[in-house]
Fold these 4 entries.
Entry 1:
Amino acid sequence: MSAVNDLRDGSQHLGEFAELYALGVLEPQERAQVEAHVADCADCARALGAAEATVAALDDAFVPQCEPPERLDARIAAAAQAVVPLAARRSVRRAALPAPSFYATAAALLLADTRQAAHDSAVLATIATAHFNHITLTARESSAPVSKVLYARDGAWFYLVVDSATCDCRAVVRSAAGERDLGKLEVRGSTATLFVRDVPRPTSLELVDASGRVISGATLVYSGQ
Amino acid sequence: MVADFRAGKSSGLEGVYRAYGRPLYSVARAVLGNDEDAQDCVHDALVRLWQRSGSYRPERGSLRSYLLVSVRNEALTRKRNAARHVHIEERAARDEQLEYEIEVNDPVERASLRRAVAALPAEQRAALELAYFGHLTHMQVAERLGVPLGTTKSRLALALRKLNAALTQRGAGAP
């Protein structure tokens, strides 16, 4: 323990603690000291990187690979889109796990809108019978209205709902085929919506206001990626 | 992606998860043994590293390796904390059995690494197996082997350096 204690004042380099850290055999306090040291020592960062690469090779060879659950996909996406401090972000994540209020809000927006036009019954049927993910668009301008996108897990469609009766925005989507301007959203009652089927596996979606500024956006994540 | 991750951008976290979510989750799942704990582990570790701006520096090399080791360390901490109520010998015995149940994904990698591990001196190989496959701390490895802690640390470090040398030679096309 003495060697790692000496790391505090920078009088020693990591030495064998690089390998011990990478192997995961250190106690949390020792790990913290190693991390603090490599933050200021490029040579030890390189040594630690080499040890980590070796353990990663062991992981690749010996650890059975399994797909992350879709619930984890959603949790990571929610964390990425949250723009609140750490402590609050944690509480948001915990509260959002079962997500009853989120689904209720999205469903209410969706149902309210779909009652207004006959063709929306097909949209509703598509969504109601599909597995989908959802994400709140991150505001990049204070003027951005609250917006959510529901999207099929196989990337076959997405449904954008903007909580604004005065939305004057265009939607821009990106996919492997490139960027595409989908035009202005259609306002119905208190929301503006857009249902799109012909952009396979979209990867990101942005709202652009009348002056051309991107006011909000989201990255669409699929399981298995 | 790396720059976005270091900058704490949303696209950085999402991109890293898309690229490395599967191996990260697999490592957590292998250490912790159940889906719920593995999910919590990957989520908490990734978000913490993403929020800690600059925790990863380029000199450290591969971001993927850095994340794999970080998630593994997080999983090991959780497992050890949870196991404090379990008798150490019972847990060690269970871990010892598990090492022989682990499957290997890539036969070529498996053969190469097995050769490299087999070529280690017996005392280094024993220490490595208890640490990597058995998930023990250095002090627990020392207790199990009945050797001083300093000796155990040296054996572990030497073992990993030899594996690193073997993998580097293989990557360079050496037999």
Entry 2:
Amino acid sequence: MLYRARSLLSRLLAVCLMAAVPMQSMAEKEVERWGLNMTEGVTTVSRDIFGLHMNILWWCVGIGVVVFGVMFYTMLAHRKSKGAKAENFHESTTLEIIWTVIPFVILIIMAIPATTTLKQIYDTEEADMDVVITGYQWKWKYEYLGQDVSFFSLLSTPIEEIQNLKEKNPNYLLEVDEPLVIPINKKVRFLITANDVIHSWWVPDLAVKKDAIPGFMNAAWTRVDEPGIYRGQCAELCGKDHGFMPIVVKAVPQEEYDQWISERREMAAKLKAMANQTFSFDELYSKGEQVYNTVCAACHQANGEGIPPTFPAIKGSPVATGPLAGHMDMVINGSRTNPAMAAFGDQLSEVDLAAVVTFQRNAFGNNMGDTIQPIDVLKAKQQ
Amino acid sequence: MAHGPAKGFTRWLYTTNHKDIGSMYLWFSFAMFLLGGVFALVIRAELFEPGLQIVEPELFNQMTTMHGLVMVFGAVMPAFVGLANWMIPMMLGAPDMALPRMNNWSFWILPFAFAMMTSTLFMEGGAPNFGWTFYAPLSTTYAPPSVTFFIFAVHIMGASSIMGAINIIATIMNMRAPGMTYMKMPLFVWTWFITAYLLIAVMPVLAGVVTMMLFDIHFGTSFFDAAGGGDPVLFQHVFWFFGHPEVYIMILPAFGIVSAIIPTFARKPLFGYSSMVYATASIAFLSFVVWAHHMFTVGMPLAGELAFMYMTMLIAVPTGVKVFNWVTTMFKGSMTFETPMLFSIAFVILFSIGGFSGLMLAIAPADFQYHDTYFVVAHFHYVLVPGAIFSITAGVYYWLPKWCGNMYNETMGKTHFWTAFIGLNLTFFPMHFAGLSGMPRRIPDYNMMFADWNMISSVGAFLFGAAQILFLFNVIATIRGGKKATDEVWENPEGLEWTVASPAPYHTFSKPPQVS
């Protein structure tokens, strides 16, 4: 029995019996539910932060027990209905000084380890490798500095699961097509920026959360101890699909990482070579449909009707059914009047650009009948 | 010379009477509270289960934005101004506010501001969808066209607040009855006095930042656009220089209300009056130097990060002093638990819980994990709902018999309290857990691991909403009839407001009383 199959009633019941262990089937066990606390994570910094968190939490609990204890005692003991007579004291400088000094001392005790951890977090020097992370509406781009490898990472949860038409898989909304791969036990520096609005790159297990700010570069770092897959989400409201741009980090042993990066390099070289090939209309159309659904559909919608006025329709649009040069310009360089339409010239390969323009001009009843080759895109880019 | 109110609608339109204006503020605030509540319930309904079922992400973002804006500027702030209008002249022994015509004006521009802001929901491209903190460039380059109306509405609200604040300061400085020295003023007056200075200091900053937005959007400047030499982080600095004192604007008057109610029902004078005044002033001062703790993740230099962390932690000291003073006021008193007292005790406990999570958030390294998660949502709702909303509710129950001459129904009041108390904790306590286990805020859909906490929150939210209907019903029933209240209403309450008849005559203290 999967998530959706469980009846609403039994879930409500489980909610009412909070203390009781909810009945769980095998499939559901993959999702850890009723999470109470922060993750300890898989880095020294994340464990330090967890320690700070627990430390301050227990101080608060302690203070709470004392203060609320006195309150409840007085509420029970000093009631008029029990015949309590009110006393009249209303001042004590000694008391005021005591309860000013004690919290102050507790704060100093807290501030010392917090300062140490913060200094450690800010030490971004001497990294073993750098990854440039760029936030886009609504995806992440990872660029391995000096490696000639860069790619986009998009949500891979099928739309049917989001629309409740299919059972949700355990990694619902926390899965991507291409995770960020990093080696374990290496100091990896993240250089974080954004292309449009402010995003925030957050992976709880790494205890890294840094805002991605357009026009500025922020630095953060991590050194992961254990191989594994660590999931996070964008943490700064960035528009419509803010809830749909997860982050997946795959930490692997060094050898595995080396192999992966060389494969990626080869793939990149192949892709470049493909820009000189010629493709048939059908090849381009079906490739274009794929690209459209992953890249364009978030705004222009799967049916091509868009959400006007911010996201205009592709179906019958004056651009997609107008002169080819204008259409190419729009896709490659973005809109000059509507900032929501980004420039895709650097985001997609020539093959993908050719394919998606071919698709847009022929799908949704646009029927322009033209085929655009990667070489046409290259020419358009040079203009 | 005393004369009654005019008849018909013009009574309300032309009135310069502090009591009429106070009532209008309070009713307006309640209407906005319900509107903001409806937005909140749309959010909670969508988040009841994973998946998108009720609203699309576009509308969801409009709901979170409008909920925040309406609650902050429409519900909480006008409610406090309403209470100030009603109570400050009566507490000071003054016949009215110092600037009655401006008082009328500062109220009457508000409905227009909110009508304009609410109308954006029906505009092409929808209402503001960039969160109540409206970070640039999401709120400038990437904003829907309705942002211009939002900016204009914020300007009007700001003007209204500034006028209200000037009026309160002028009243307190000039209209105190003979013998009413500053250190004899009730704490509600003191806290409002300090709040009014905060308002005058920061509302112009808010006006400045929205004007910079307006220029970026329409007149080609690039204050917040890096491509033109600007800086999106500058927006956050300016916004939070307003925003953090704003948080205290929404809580200091609450301290005043609770400091009036607890002594009455503990039958014991407020403990540490002067330390309460100094603590309020220190909190107000500190509120100006902690703004960047909202921005620990923007990439400030280490020194800035540390300075803002230490300053923020320091706020715990004067806040703690206040809590300790309230508890000691109750200690060895002779307590009864009427509705205002229940709300006030809940205020002290739950506001302290919000204070604890605030202290946790102040620890910058830990904030990297908490920031922009539901833990933050839990934190600020714990300080705002049982903080601001509960204190306002307590104040209404406490002074309502004085306003309308009738006692409210105690059973209904207590039912309201318990429903609201349970609803609020069901709604907001699980948010701590959702946030700690990794749920970002402002998302319309989430993984199943957050499902259970969200479902509880949603159930709680509807319960809390239902409790407010009970409140409305109780207040209307009290205005229409009920047991007659005595002039003192409660047992030996302190303050000049209890020396006038119940209901308070249209004009009070035409001749100033002598305060000994």
Entry 3:
Amino acid sequence: MKPFNLSLFQFLLLFIVCLLLISSPLKAELISGYDFLSNQAKEMQNDDFQNPGYAMIEQGLTTYNRKGENDKLCSQCHGENGDKFIPESIAQFPKFHKILKRPVTLRDQIQLCWGKRLDNFPLLYDDTDLLALETMIRNKAYGEEVNVNISGNMQPYYDAGKKFYLTRFGQMDMNCAQCHDIYTGKMLRGQKLSQGHTNGFPLFRLESQKMVNLPQRLRECFRSLRAETFAQDSDEFRNLEIYLNARGNGLKIETPAIRY
Amino acid sequence: MIFKEKTFTLFSLIMLIFYINNLAAEDIARYEVTGNSIIKPLNDLTGKPERGQELFRDQNKGNCLACHRLSTLNDSFQGNIGPLLDNVTLRLTEAQIRLRIADMKQVNPYSIMPGFYRSPERINRISPLYEGSTILTAQEVEDIVSYLVSLNLKSSGEYK
């Protein structure tokens, strides 16, 4: 009798633990920055004519159709207007580059094709042409779920990005997690704190009335923390991009989004 | 030639900004932390509550309303990251409030609240624009401390 009783007790304990695990959300629910917008801003995002991101896509298409120094065209590999881009694949960036043996962001990949395939002079990371191409190509994966692989080769970069996310910076001495994990939903002045996801980038910022890519936005974060920033193509920001994108794995891509 | 002149003007402008910035920076007062408080006013200064209220609201200074609320103020955008500060003196002494404003991280190392008088040496990657400086000066910290302390006196009719 005794061993049976004990195992019943153990069974019940296990049962209760399982119930608790199922009912308590192990991972906080993912919420897109979209859900934190006013109705007016939501409407703006959804209307192709009001959303300034679509002008950026048009500019991206113009650049896409411009001949390279070697007379080649993006469309020779990626189809008319980029029709051959595979949404699932675009949604996987940043990913590990087998030949370079390091992770590349979508921006890095555009730079690689621009330089190696079209034989062009490299674009500056601040160049509007690069921003426009990224917006146009990321938009090809609109509605696709973000899906960054963080196992195998990618693991150490993801871990470095996560460590960065938890590091305090600047005179304000805060880390990203304090605003975007701990106090999400609380009010910072008139601004409700979102989870700080990246599924809308490149996006149009209402505050500065400008299109920005992720590194440009991160530099603004650093300015508000009164911290010394990093270069847009630095390993630090690349690792952070891996962590931020992966953290939002499963969110639908909204490029070009509207955000505060 | 024109290019050179422009670069020169830009250069002098930047140097001027650094100069003004340095004028504003002061030697950072040393202070002794006793328990969870700073008993002596920073640099033995006396705070002015009226000025403290301005600094409390000012987005480029205390910016306290970004995270806190104070129901005696009618500012429309008040945050709720930190606790309501009405009657804070019922919970904390003046000396305890002083440490919390000067360097909250010495009370709770995980706090999001910036250390307004935290030694720059304990800050990671401060922007060159703010190098060697604290968010608030010793006088400004004392002004805000005296303002918060005055709130309680006010409700019991002793301050103005």
Entry 4:
Amino acid sequence: MAITSLSFILFIIAVFIAYFAVPKRFQWIVLLVTSTVFYLSYGIKSALYIFVTASTIYGATRWMQSITDNQKKYLKENKATLSKEEKSAYKDKNKKARKRIMVLTLLLNVGILCVFKYFHFALEQVNAVIGLFGGNQISDVYKFIVPLGISFYTFQSVGYLVDVYFEYYSAEKNYFKVLLFVTFFPQMTQGPISDFEKLSKELFTEYTLDYKNYSWGLQRMVWGFAKKMLIADTLAPMVKDVFTNYSQYTGITTLIGAFLYSIQIYADFSGYMDIMCGICEVMGIKLTENFDRPYFSKSIAEYWRRWHISLGDWFKKYIYYTIGMSNWSRKLATKTKDKFGKHLGNTVPATVALIVVWTATGLWHGATWAYIAWGLVNGLFIIFSLWMEPVYAGAKSKLKINDNNWAWQAFQILRTFILVTFIKVLPEVGTLSDGIGLWRQVFTNHVIPHTKMELMPYVNWKHNVDILAFLLAMFFTFLQFCASVIQNKQPVRAYFNKLPQVVRVFIIAVLVVLIASFGVQATWDAGGFMYANY
Amino acid sequence: MDELMDILMEIDPDIDYANETNLIDGKVLDSMSILALITEICDVFDIEIGPKWMRNENFNSVEAMWNMIQAIQEEE
């Protein structure tokens, strides 16, 4: 069931009706049933794996919880008779048992993810090594259909498992509530990757149909469809053309194509988030936000705090801090402090953690060397900025640069957007050498195009409808830019909802007509959402 | 408490630590500053901050951090 299809719209209408028609205590059951239906619409085989994940995570968390509960009970009952050493030995034994359960469940679920996502890549590397020694290569006869949203639901489930292990909160007793947490359809295919504690509060609260939620939710859905269908899907074939034929295009043509890609991927991913957040808002559910105007960031590190926020938070919570706070990382920091001073010493844990996190982030996005390189380039920029912080601060002070100066801020934003665009295209062109080839093309082919056909050959200038679709995509990109500028000062949605109802209905109606006129064809040609491939 | 304040002032002297109660949730401190902060706290107070203490509420204010340090010292 494609999100941009009529069947999905009908499905959502059915969900809304059922959700508010049943007694409130059954609302979450409606979400569970509809989420299951949604997932099954992509195939029964694929659904098997999400049930394995939900079931093993449920079993493991309940088991760990029972050990914790029994321990508390036992220690309370035998408080007077047990010595300090006996208590400590008993706690250690239980801790080891809980750790075994957590590690095995983690390995099983991450293992499933790795087999589906990385088997072919790993085999390629093994064959490359065998090839070096002239051995017989292993034939890759396995064909896997990657289960829908496996990267997202596995990370979310593993997060819950680890949280229960560290006793951040208790394990959920009801299996079906855990199943809903894992399969909840608005966030299962492309995130956000939610925290159980936060999402469960939203999912299991009872809601009454509220006019504000209903109208604001619908508005956000329509805006999301407009971003996806009028911007992202219109630009998709043009970007594809640039990535395929960049070696024949001039540097400026290729550069414009790269910027179009930045616009496309933001409209695609944030459009999806707007649709899903809008659906949830109608039902009174607040979904974790995944974007905070990322193209207005003043550094790469800030950009990653504002783009795909939930994935960044997941890596931060479960990998970055675990590595950065490990004993060996801190010992290394102490040694570095002694030799190279306090600043560099204090950056060691972050540096080590960032290298691991960014390699993992690259691999999470795709099993290719280009994605690994993309992750490392991002990481290296952040690490370099971290190391150079005192130098930057000194230089800014000498040059009397005020951080609040608008021109300086605009420069930082523009610089970050350009850098982010160059990094973004690296894994998307094809192989790593294709990505580097596109960079080279931008900087080495200085031919100046003289006509619009030469400047942007990927726009079909011969057909008025295609030109209009392109201009509409640019207009909506400009609108998005304006909305982001306003958002910096006041919430855009509150501002929109102050308009007379007639005007609001008119604007929404125009958007719907434009989506139906231009977006449907563009989406038909472009296909699904980009992040669904991750 | 003064030692903790010294560490924080070294991380970012522009923050009003005495009144700020949203250091993490409000994204006043970024993850790199937090790691530098933890490294310094562990060194100065000779404690280990295990993953179970890594919750936003333990780092949102100076008072919360101080309570966490004392709780870890008692536990150790």
